Each structure stands twice: as structure tokens, then as C-alpha cells.
């Protein structure tokens, strides 16, 4: 979908591995590029290029609005910051896609690098509280066919929403413009 532009806002939580979140952020951006997806990155917002605090969320929202994104992609790179994600999605009012990589099993000491599945559940719950509809892409590896198919399906949704609102605007314009012209001509007695 060459005309669809995603806002790419990978997110993390500080209690899990930040280096692992950075790794998945880079891998996910690389995979989007390989698939030819047009996206606006947040790598200039902070040194990590990840959404994890309110100040950065405000900057990200401003950047995405200026870029006129058609959809919001929220990869949960290690867990995610559910309230920041929900506030961003609510403010942007575009289709939202949640995804996270498969979680590896804990090491011998019980330490986990991430818990994306739980983070996605938490974000989904907060998005529902904020009354923000979203699409959930099954946790998978970036190379899995389900990732490519799910992303393509989401881009299709964004295209439908974009086309619907544009056509609605055009139909409204067709009906409103003659009325406005007629009214102005009466006011200024042009015709």
C-alpha cells in the first residue's frame, strides 16, 4: 500500500531489558523497510527511539500529526507502557495495531528479557478503557508469514478508513458548496 503511512512507535517498560527492547526496535524497523512499508519513525524523539514517557509521547503525537499518518503501529519491544500507548492512540484517532515478539523462556535464574504478551494484554485493557479500537497481531517472529500477512491486513484497514473519510468529505463538500455559494450570492447580491 504505497499511499499508507504508519506511525511507528515501539514501546518498552523499564523493569525489563532495555538493550533487548532496542534490539527488537531495530529489527522491527528493518523488517518494515524490507516489506516496503512507509512509516514515520521516532528515532529523533529520544536516544532510544522508544515510547516510554509522557514528555516523549507529546512530541511523538505532534510529529505523527504533522506527518499525517494513516495508522499507528505499537510494537511492544519488551513489555510496553500501556497508558502512554493509549493516550497516543486516543489523541491520534487512527487505526491501531498492537504486536510484540514471541517471549523466550526465562533463563536458569528465572530472569526474563521481556514479557510482551502480558504487556499487550495490559495495553489492550487500557485501550478498551479509553474506548480506542485496535487490532491485535498474534505474537510471532518478524520472519513468520503471520507477521507479514497481519501487517498487510492492517494496512488494508488503514486504506479503507482513509478512503472512507476522504469520500465522505468529498460527498459532504458536493452538498455543502452549492449551498454556501447560493447563500453568499444572496448576501452579497451577486446573482
3D architecture notes:
This protein has a single domain, classed as Rossmann fold (3-Layer(aba) Sandwich). It is α/β, with parallel strands linked by helices and 191 residues long. It is globular, with a radius of gyration of 20 Å. The mean pLDDT is 86. The chain has a 5-stranded parallel beta sheet with strand order 2-1-3-4-5, sandwiched between helices. It is built from 5 helices and 5 strands.
- Span from first to last CA? 46 Å
Return the CATH architecture.
3-Layer(aba) Sandwich
Briefly note the CATH topology name. Answer: Rossmann fold
CATH top level class name = Alpha Beta
What is the strand content?
5-15%
Number of helices: 5
In short:
By secondary structure, the protein is of the alpha/beta class.
Question: What are the defining features of this structure?
Answer:
191 residues; alpha/beta; Rossmann fold; five-stranded parallel sheet; 5 helices; 5 strands
